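Recall the central idea of this unit: under ordinary conditions, the amino acid sequence of a chain determines the structure it adopts. In this exercise we apply that idea directly, starting from the sequence alone.
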Amino acid sequence: MRKLIMGIVEFREKMLPQYAQQFSKLALAQTPDALFITCSDSRVVPDLLASTHPGDLFTMRNVGNLIPPATSEGVSTGDLSEASAIEYAVLVLKVANIVVCGHSECGAMKSVFSRNAKLKSPNLDKWLCHANNAAFRLEQEGPLDDRLKAHDQLSQLNVLVQLEHLMTYPIVRQQVIAGALVLSGWWFDIATGAMYAYERTSRSFEVIDRAMAERMIARLAARAR
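Accordingly, the structure predicted from this sequence is:
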């Protein structure tokens, strides 16, 4: 807690002067380009990993980067917090992109994979059921990358399952079909610091280096035409 408190002081004394004008503008409105859905894990820091600034990302974080699917009426089958963030991002902020970002060594995925009942955590157990389809897919279809540890294999498949859950929301599906919204699946390897993006053509997560980034941006530009 001391580190957290002193970090606030350091920001106030050293960083705030650089951001003062930006915060003044952001106080009136925000226009983020993307909704970034990721895990609560302390090792995953979206603004650091994407070199973004205040106002760039609308971020939703929870254990396991999970999105409870919606009914045909668009009502969440799980916690309303995630559904509310999706609705606000799409309907109010009108983001053009939604990214679901999983990561290596995810505690949530380890729990789903091991089915550990020793924690006596009924709320967590109920929440993690939204990753059960990913576990089933791993068992039935196998991993995207068999070089990874089993829980990391699950983590990658979980990203794809949560993208499918996103598409159960009518407002998301309508915007995607209209070409106004793009869904992307990313995966962060904590050990190497590398970010990967899922490529449907290769059915694999590929590292986002400069060449990959240029291809991704070109595809986005083509869709915007």
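Residues 1-30 form one domain.
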